[in-house]
Amino acid sequence: MPGNLYNNCSNLPATPTRLERLLRERELRKYSKCLNDCEAELPSSTQDCFSPDLETSTCLFNDEELLETVSASRSLNDDGERLDFRTSKQRLLVVANRLPVSAVRHGEDSWQLEMSVGGLVTALLGVKEFDTRWIGWAGVNVPDEIGQKALAKALDEKRCIPVFLDEEVVHQYYNGYCNNILWPLFHYIGLPQEDRLATTRSFQSQFDGYKKANQLFADVVNEHYEEGDVVWCHDYHLMFLPKCLKERNKKMKVGWFLHTPFPSSEIHRMLPSRLELLRSVLAADLVGFHTYDYARHFVSACTRILGLEGTPEGVEDQGKLTRIAAFPVGIDSERFIKALELPEVQDHMKVLKQRFAGRKVMLGVDRLDMIKGIPQKILAFEKFLEENPNWHNKVVLLQIAVPTRTDVPEYQKLTSQVHEIVGRINGRFGSLTAVPIHHLVCLYLIICFHI
C-alpha cells in the first residue's frame, strides 16, 4: 500500500526482472559446476526451483540459504555417482486454533473428516508454494489414547497435525479468554462491568487457561519442527505462542498474523494482561496485520504501553527488531470461478432465479456474530420498507448466516434475537406467497465453494 511505513519489510525482495533471474541462474550454475568438480552443469529443471514466485513468497529466505539448498540437494548414491538435482519446497508450519477440517467420531478408532468453514481456511487454500503442514485443534475432545492415535493417523493424510485440548482448557481458553475478552476488546467492545471481583477472578483463570493452551500448541510445534521450517502463527488465539517457541529455539523463524482489527492503544490499555501479550507477540520475527492502521495501532501500543522504540520497519527492543507490516488477505479466486461451472451450482442458480423472478435480490453472507451487525441490517431493511411502500413484494433480502460459537450463551441470545426480528418483519410485510426476508442459518452456499 503506498506510503505504508509498516509495509516495507526489508526481508521482502522486489520481484526480480527477467535479466536478474537469468544472471542469478547463471551464478547458480557456476556454483553447481564447482560442486561437480567443474564437469557438470545444472539441469534446466533446476530453474523452476528458483522462480520469482518461490523467491518472493516469504521474507525468511536469503542467498546463503538458497546456495546451501543447492549444495545439500546434491549427494552421492551407493556407486559414488552424483545424484540429479531434486527440487524441494520450503516447509511451512501453519499454526491456528482450528484445523481446516472438522472431525466426527464413528466408533472407537474411526473418524470422519469434513471441510471446515472460515475466512482463514478460505484464504490459506491459495497458499500452494510451500510444503505445508497445518497444526491445530480438531474441535473435539479426545480423552482416550486409541482415539487420539486414530485421529492423528486420519489427519496425517490431510497433512494436518492435531493439538489435543481437554474440555476444561477449551472452556477457559477458547470460550473464556478468547471469546469473552480478546474478541470483544479487539472490536472496541468494552470488558464486562458487572461484579468486578468475580470478573477479576474469572479473568485470571481464563488467562491461565489461555497460556496453558498456547503452551500445548508450542509442544506440538516443537515435536514436528525440522531445522529450516518456517512457523506461521495465526490470530488472537495464539498471541502467547511466539514467545513459547522462541524460548525453546531462538533460531526458529516465527511469524504471527492477526485476522481481526488491532485496537488503538487507549482501548488496548483496558486489557489487564496487555504487557505480557504484547511482549509475547514481539518475540516473533515478523508480525502482520490486515491494514496499515492496525499495524500503526500495534506499534503505538508497544511505544506507549511498553515504552519501546517504534521505527519505520517495526518495533525495536534492546537491539532486537520485530518487523511490522500490513498484508491484506485475499482468496484463491480461480477456485471460486471454477465452482460456478459445477453442475450442482448451476442447478441451484436456476432454482434461485425462478424463485425470485421479477424481484430485486439483496444478498448478505455473514457469520452469525455480534460484531457483524446482522440485527441492524435487518432493522434498516424494515425502515426501507416502511418508507417505500411501492417496493413491497418487489425486493427481497436473502441473508445467509453461518452459525458460529453455538455453545456460547451470548451467541445463542443473538440467534434468538435475529429470528424474532425476522419473524416480526415477515409477519408485517409478507404474504402467503412471498416474504421480504429469507434468513438462512446454513452452510450450503459456503460448502459449494469447497467441493
TrEMBL record:
CDD domains: GT20_TPS
GO cellular component labels: cytosol
InterPro entries with a match to the protein in the record: Glyco_trans_20
PANTHER family xref list: BCDNA.GH08860, TREHALOSE-6-PHOSPHATE SYNTHASE
Lineage: Eukaryota, Viridiplantae, Streptophyta, Embryophyta, Tracheophyta
Name this protein carries in UniProt: alpha,alpha-trehalose-phosphate synthase (UDP-forming)
Source organism per UniProt: Gossypium lobatum
GO MF term list: alpha,alpha-trehalose-phosphate synthase (UDP-forming) activity; trehalose-phosphatase activity
Residues making up the signal peptide according to the UniProt record: none
